[in-house]
Amino acid sequence: MDEGTELSLTIAQIVQRLKGSHLHSQIERQAKECLHQPEIKLESLKEDVRSFLKTSGWERKLQNAVYRELHVQLPPSHPAAPPEHLKEPLAFMRKAQTGWEKRVLKSLNSMSTELGVPLARMRPAVEQKELANKWNEMGTDEPDLTRFRPVYAPKDFLEVLISLRNPNHDSSEDVSARSHWGLIQVSLNVRDIPQLRQAYIELNLTSGQLGIDDHAHIHPDLFESDYVQTGKKVVVEQDSAAAQQYSRQGCPTGLRADLWALILNSTNQPQDVMHYEQLKAGVIQHELLVDNLIYKDVKLTASNDDYYFVFEDFLYQVLLCFSRDTAVLEHFKYNSATPPKSYIQGKDDECAVVYPPNGVIPFHGFSMYVAPLCFLYNEPSKLYSVFREMYIRYFFRLHSISSSHSGIVSLCLQFERLLQTHLPQLFYHLRQIGAQPLRIAFKWMVRAFSGYLSTDQLLLLWDRILGYDSLEIVAVLAAAVFAFRAENLMEVTSLASAEAVLADLSTLKVIPLIQIFLFATAI
């Protein structure tokens, strides 16, 4: 496809998607209302209406909506390509993802059968009233969760990724020892340090960075004051693209919540608040088996975390509502995964429905995607809409098998390649003692480091994920952590001692580590 055809296809897709939106009807209403104004002349009607929409801020809102669509829509492809190719172009990846989904669903269904707990049930009126009354203090409730176990943990998922093989690739041809060093045995195009330097140019050693220049003994006038002023202008201008570019050098603490919401075009309009309330009503009316998995996960992770335990109630609210949100199903158009279906006894016949309603079965650690956002947003509907947007843009890629640059397979491969290329002795040493680096780093990457770094450092990392619209920086940081602790790791003699060296990452400073690894490593 040539560039012109590709562009016109993209425009047509975006117009189609925005046509039915609330924004479309709002702009239409504004355009009709402005016709009564004296400055709108019949002879220059089109230009006058356009100019009115521009000055009254509607043009910017439309730009932000288009910018959001560009981030979440399907990548351009051949018009004749079948739908499954749009989700994931590589057949062996699709097959592996389908097999993994079957395993997860089987695990959920067998839990339901073994424990005698239905997948969904209507709550009795008394129970509904009780839940509505304690909605803001669900953490005080202690349901018996001993019988429930997480459907899967990251290490189970890692085993699936390790077993991935491309049937079209004859590994006997590839005699380079390096390919057999690592655990990931599929070939994907991942960037090395010279390409990463090009892509992450704003992180170079000569650019000012929040996460470094605001902590060093540097007068704030030299960088911080001007940078914060620029940030305030970006927020006032309400421009998503500018906010994304700004976020590459970090967001000031006081502006981060507004900047992230702007990048994600998460506006928290009255209809968003109403949608959240509808989801809440759905939680109160029906109980799902996955609710127990959510309770269990929060209890096992965030409730035991020094930073996040105070947000326990928020996490229940957001995750229970998320499990009921059918709007999340929209992202399966570009996600290699397919929403799981379960059979319920219908009035006439058995019928298959998506279960849970959002198509996402939570796994061990899932609640840690939400926890850091609780530091930024204290209004549940706003917290919810930002989390949902973060999930359908980024987090879903961390637990589905795909060939995407931001997908977990690419991140694992990139992490291994960076270490093999730039720290070959360390990689070889760890492999020899049975401490494959990926087995240690995988849990960090699958959670985008949530729960492993101190919160201020994690938010600085997530600034860059949003700024560069990619999870690639997560793999770079994982490699940088190994580089930073390389001296100690060269001394270890077992997997347990290697894990001990890397057990506590809470003292690490993220941006200096990434900068040194990318821009001060000899190539």
Describe this structure in words.
By secondary structure, the chain is mainly α. The chain has helices at 3-19, 22-33, 45-55, 58-72, 83-87, 91-115, 125-133, 154-162, 193-199, 224-237, 240-247, 256-263, 270-285, 289-300, 312-323, 380-393, 408-422, 424-432, 437-446, 455-468, 472-484, 486-489, 495-501, 510-519, and strands spanning 120-122, 286-288, 341-345, 350-354. The strands form 2 sheets. The chain has a two-stranded antiparallel ribbon with strand order 1-2. Strands 3-4 form a two-stranded antiparallel sheet. A hairpin with a 4-residue loop joins β3 (341-345) and β4. α11 (240-247) crosses α20 (455-468), α13 (270-285) packs across α15 (312-323) and α17 crosses α18. 37% of the residues are buried. The mean pLDDT is 86.
**Number of extended strands:** 4
What proportion of the residues is helical, as a percent range? Answer: 40-55%
Assembly form of the protein: single chain
Number of helices: 24
- From the helix content, strand content and strand pairing, which structural class follows? mainly alpha
**Radius of gyration in whole Å, from Cα?**
25 Å
SSE layout and pairing:
Layout: H1 3-19, H2 22-33, H3 45-55, H4 58-72, H5 83-87, H6 91-115, E1 120-122, H7 125-133, H8 154-162, H9 193-199, H10 224-237, H11 240-247, H12 256-263, H13 270-285, E2 286-288, H14 289-300, H15 312-323, E3 341-345, E4 350-354, H16 380-393, H17 408-422, H18 424-432, H19 437-446, H20 455-468, H21 472-484, H22 486-489, H23 495-501, H24 510-519
Antiparallel strand pairs: 1-2, 3-4
Helix pairs in contact: 1-4, 11-12, 11-20, 13-15, 13-16, 14-15, 15-16, 17-18, 17-19, 17-21, 19-21, 21-24
